[in-house]
Amino acid sequence: MSKVRERLRANLGRVRERIASACAAAGRSPESVRLIAVTKYAQWPWVEALIELGVKDLGESRPQQLERRAPLAAGRVTWHLIGHLQRNKVRKVLPIADWIHSVDSVRLLDRIELIAAELHVRPRVLLEVNVSGEASKDGLSPHELLEQADRWRATRHADLCGLMTMAPVVASSSQARPYFDRLVELRDRLRQLWDDPDALPELSMGMSNDFDAAIAAGATCIRIGSALFEGLEEVNGGQ
Ligand SMILES: *Cc1c(COP(=O)(O)O)cnc(C)c1O
Predict the structure, then answer these.
(1) Which atom of ligand 1 is nearest to the CA of 224?
(2) Angle between helices 44-52 and 3-26 (to 10 degrees)
(3) Rounded to the nearest whole angstrom, what is the distance from the C-alpha of residue 81 to the centroid of ligand 1?
(4) Cβ–ligand 1 contact at 116 (below 6 Å)
(5) Positive or negative, the Cα torsion across 171, 174, 178, 180?
């Protein structure tokens, strides 16, 4: 087995163990958490090896890289766009991305609706919320999210299935927990406003440093990059 594959197998094993213990502590089934491997900094052969190890969901943050890579994994994985999407890229992204985690305006959602109808596709979309209020982060403010509640609910061509957030960089996983709890509260508030207890089942939250806390708070999708690919640069020469 190549060194790259060996290292990836060990990293993936550790991530799966962390998922299992966070789920056990929260009384959840590990199958209730979707592991999305974030491949934005990974070389393609590493991604290939990860697919061979059984990973089925891949996330890219840039539409251009998604476009380049999607044909290489055609039919083998579910692609998630997790980074900022400009309206003029929607037409290229919709045929490839099964999920879009980063809808952050009414204008973008309108565009997705229009093109999805035209192409006869039904992407899963999530609204990205800037829970921490940091200026460096994309996403709707909690106020904008609630103010536009009727507009989100009127989504027809896309499957508006949840909310996404990124916690600030903090010293420990437990310090990220309040941001995840806040996303759950906002989801519950929309459920109340819509009088629909089953709305927005997906919560995309948790990255390498904080996914344990996100799972405890109720994450259904975690987006993991560095914990899967750490140490790969070092072993790459010896593959
Ligand atoms: C890069 C990225 C991740 C993965 O971050 P890691 O800390 O490497 O796990 C998750 N979500 C988004 C939106 C990202 O851009």
Answers:
(1) 9
(2) 60
(3) 11
(4) no
(5) positive
Specify the length of the chain in residues: 239
Atom of ligand 1 nearest to the CA of 209: 7
Per-residue exposure over 138-159, b if at least 16 CB sit within 10 Å of its own CB, e if not: ebbebeebeebeeebeebebbe
Please determine, for residue 51, whether its predicted confidence score (pLDDT) is greater than 60. yes
Which secondary structure element, helix H or strand E, spans residue 147, and what is its range? helix 142-147
**Residue appearing with tokens 């999210």:** 145
3 state SS of 152? helix
Q: pLDDT over 90 for what percent of the chain?
A: 94
Question: For ligand 1, atom 6, which residue shows the shortest CA distance?
Answer: 225
Stretch (H or E) spanning 162: strand 159-164
In angstroms, how far is CA 173 from the centroid of its own chain?
18
pTM for the whole thing?
Answer: 0.97
Render pLDDT for 156-198 as a digit per residue (tens, 0 to 9).
999 999 999 999 998 888 999 999 999 999 999 999 999 999 9
Assigned token pair, 165: 């957030």
Cα torsion 142, 144, 146, 148 to 10°: value is -160
For residues 208 and 9, what is the distance between their CA atoms, to the nearest angstrom?
A: 16
